[in-house]
Write a structure and sequence with these properties.
- By secondary structure, the chain is α+β, with helices and mostly antiparallel strands.
- The strands form 3 sheets. Strands 1, 8, 9, 10, 11, 12, 13, 14, 15, 16 and 17 form an 11-stranded mixed beta sheet that branches.
- Strand 8 and strand 9 form a beta hairpin.
- Helix 11 runs parallel beside helix 13.
Amino acid sequence: MRPVPRHRLLAGLLLTPLLTTGCFASGGEASGEDAADGSRLRVALAFPPAENLSPYGADATLLSRLGVTEGLTELDANGSAAPALAASWTRENDRTWLFTLREATFQDGTAVTPAAVAAALTHATEAKPVPAALAGVTLKAAEADGSRVRITTGDADPALPLRLSSPGLAILSPKAYGNDENGGSGDKGRRPDPTGTATGPFELTKVSGTTAATFDRYDDYWGGRAQASGIDARFISDGTARTNALRTGQADIAEAVPVSQAAALDEGTRHETATTRTTSLLLNTKKGPFKDQALRSAARGAVDTSVFAKDVYEGYADPGAGVFGPAVTWAADKRVKPAGRAGAAEPDGTSVTVATYNNRPELPEVAQVLGQQLEKAGFRVKLEVREYSRLESDALAGKFDAFVAARNTLLDTGDPVSVLASDYTCDGGYNLALLCDKDVDRAVAEAEGLSDSAKRQQAAMDAEAAILGTDAVVPLVHQQIITGVRTSVRGVVFDPYERTLIDTGTRR
């Protein structure tokens, strides 16, 4: 098998603002106000809307990937906080920050004002469930003087600029929340409507259920007029069908090409990106057989991770090393060996249900191989496979004994500590393992209080060790993603955080 090239990203924390925006290399030219009307882009996406395109859940990344929504900050190529709707920021004290807004307008023509931004962030704090980036965080936003917004957190939050880059904290106009133009309160907990109310270069104009959506260029975008005149997106959960849409000319861009289809694409249309995405087996620690840590230990011992990287992912992945993989370049040198693991019990025919989703076509095969490994160890395994939109709520409710999920660990905030808080603490908003362990919560809380970059990274790895010691999660592989792009298309963004796919320079 040919060697797989890997470009490693730096994932350090930079909490001071930059003077210019920092984006991932896309190969596109800078857009300008005089850009000619370009062709529309046809995009085949893997995940249909799960929550009616609300920015507070899984759909948030869909909107950011297509250039619809933005936050106050964004992540640059080094994983650091860079300006977006906020041109700069300063820290007043441990709990208070001032963000200075750039001059921009919402897609409904209203101005991006401190009052509107404060109202948008307030609505995010009131969402049920709360966006993953705010898990365990108390945040208050208020209009300050001039063009500034003051944000105060309940506890010191050194990673706040990183947190505000989350797609789940996108800023929408008051209209999106049913508010008046001055940022009135609207309906608490109401899911906002992003149709024509965001700030990005493309405006959501039409949604056809879970099959398609239409996006038109927003000509008054503060960052310059996009080169493409719009985007026609189709949601195709079947990976083979998604790839065939690209090969037959029905799509210009196809995301998440299955590794089984990679060889069918010409080298010029196949693009590989090392990501911070980890595929893991998450065990239900709250109820069912895996409430017993000794059975979790038995399940972990049954898993051979090398099989997944070599065979299932055909070399487009590395064997699971931890929650954070080799794309997080500092993690390996700071990794701590887990301690306190229970001895393995004899499964003795214990019946378990393992669930996963088919939007990422490798996952059902991963689950099937896992099932074989677990059965060899003495478990009896039932597999359940659905689309993600029909699976997430049941997984979060603990209706399965185990869940196979692919998670970009730095997607929500860019902060390694925040994803641990979201996914593995008692109050975590995306805790698929339903883990509630006092030692884990203590380790994560200690890491959250650190502002020094190196110390925060080490504390994150200490917390990772505490989490792995519970055997609530078994990391399987650290993935690359394959994006199919027709040779006539330029400027697609190959983003290791998977937050961006199309921007102002993407065109055909």
